[in-house]
Amino acid sequence: MRRRRDGRDLLKLCRFDADRLGVVDGPLVRDVTPVLERLPAQRWPAPPGDALIGHLAGLRPWIEAARAAAPAIELGRVTLRSPVASPGKVIAVRSNYQGTEADDAGATPPCPELFLKAASSVAGAGDGLQLRLPGRRVDHEVELVAVVGQRLDGPTQALQQGVVAGYCIGIDVTMRGPEDRGLRKSLDGFTLIGPWLTTADEVADPNGLEVELSVNGEIRQRGNTARLVHGVPALLGAAASYFTLQPGDILMTGTPPGVGPLERGDVVRCSIDRLGALRVEVR
Known about the structure:
This protein is mainly beta. The protein has 2 domains: 12-77, no CATH class; 90-281, Fumarylacetoacetate hydrolase, domain 2 (Alpha-Beta Complex), CATH 3.90.850. It has 5 helices and 18 strands. The chain has helices at residues 51-54, 56-67, 101-104, 181-184, 232-240, and strands at residues 12-16, 20-25, 28-31, 72-74, 90-94, 113-117, 122-123, 138-140, 142-148, 164-172, 174-175, 191-199, 210-215, 218-224, 250-252, 260-261, 267-272, 276-281. The strands form 3 sheets. Strands 1, 2, 3, 4, 5, 6, 7, 9, 10, 12 and 15 form an 11-stranded mixed beta sheet that branches. A 4-stranded antiparallel beta sheet has the order 14-13-17-18, with no helix packed on it. Strand 17 and strand 18 (276-281) form a beta hairpin. The protein starts with 11 loop residues before the first strand and ends with a strand.
């Protein structure tokens, strides 16, 4: 595992197989699931937010200590799930890249056009993507995803340290049609994130990251987060002006040009600098 200049470990956390917790270490996954026993016991009603994400800062020393002796499994032999097990909400944004159709038309809004997707739409690479309604066009949208790390109940907190727990690659899947946008994007499995959570300290600046998506080896989307109209702090601040954000909430930052349709049997591969690659099969 690589280390920062200050000697601290850089973490890539994954959820795999039957809710196991792993640290990605090159071609291996080190199973540190026993560390989860240190999470506070919960009684009904459980507090809002994802428990692991909300307590990640406190658990991190234990994860780093456990990884050296943890059982190692080849990465290719595990099934990767969404690294966030219990997201409270998924916040998405429309037309947030320079060069998109709305931007070219001079229609880019001064404030981000946010909307919500169902938390039940969140899935991981190993779950694949099921096209549930035959005959309806379904499109891919690759996006940088920020995972909220702490409670955020006002826009002024968006710049505080620790607000973002980490980053993932995301595919915002969209069914075309006359229904409300949030409904068409909220089918089961229509928010694919992963392949793991890269902690925020490994991505010191989320601007300037190369983003790419290919389908069956053909590149369809390519962009750079330097061309985001509204960056991560601005999006978080805008969202927090409407509702309280909780640990594990998912922020999708928008997609570069090149959105296109998906068919059964397609293999989608997405990559973002420092975050790895997300491979999804369409079924």
